[in-house]
Amino acid sequence: MSTKQVVSIRPFIRTTHAFQKLRVCKRCGQYTCLWEDHCTACGRGTLATVEERASSRVKRRIARDLFITVILGAVATYFGETIDQTMAAASVSLLLLAGLIFMQKRSFQVEQQRELKRMLRQDEEAIRQGINRNWALVAEARKQDEALAYEMLREIGSLVYNDRIRLQQVALLQSFVLRSDMDLQLKPLLLRSFERLLAEYIGEIARLKPELVREDAIRYIATYEVNILQLHNGIQILTAVAAAAVRKSKYIELFPSLITRYARFMPKDRFMRLYRTLELYPGKARGGLAESVGRVYNEKYRDSYADVRV
Q: What burial letters (b/e) apply to 44-82, b meaning 16+ CB within 10 Å?
């Protein structure tokens, strides 16, 4: 009897850059990649994105430069000995101020990016400590709400490329009843070594959302095929991944051996897609794939398609 939980998982908000997941407290400087409203260190609601923080620093620097320019212009104007000198000093000060404002507006985006890079580099240790605090919160959340714990790990995993975090995510996912309407991931969860839970997860994704099964996932399954065959559902996993691979002719060309071994077990629609692809692009068939597929077709499907023109 299945003990998997029926859960609801919030969609993952993807960002252009990983650092955009970070927020920093403007009061104490603690970093977080989670979605809390108040800083967990000082308790204040002063969290801002790193981009906002960098922008704020640049604006303060701009305000300082403008203030210094105004003061120097005022001093030069005040100490003018004649009306002409005073007017000249005031005119030059205004021109310098206008030029400075113009240049600052033009260079603001560049300066913001420079400040952002400088801030992330200087605060590297603070960022690491903040993420470690976030990770520590996962254990507490898991006792109450495993779906929330997974969502937290998913945020942390977007910044930390760590097999331990990936495996924790996979373990939680395999304790849920997965559905095709869920916002699921695969590529960010691939590990460097064989793990049963990951192999089973890939097999389930191959059935639910085959569009997520790409070259790196297929290569993982092909690499650990012998290990997977030792699992009670190993044949089903390998067949599901091979069936997902026939979606693209590129994968048929890259993994002919894997597809050859499990073509016989594929669902009819997947097998016929493979058969038709090889008819259209015979050059994609390598390593005896075409012959093997032809034999399976003749044994299982030839009669039902005898009158159909492909």
A: eeebeebbebbbebbeeebeeeeeebeeebeebbeeeee
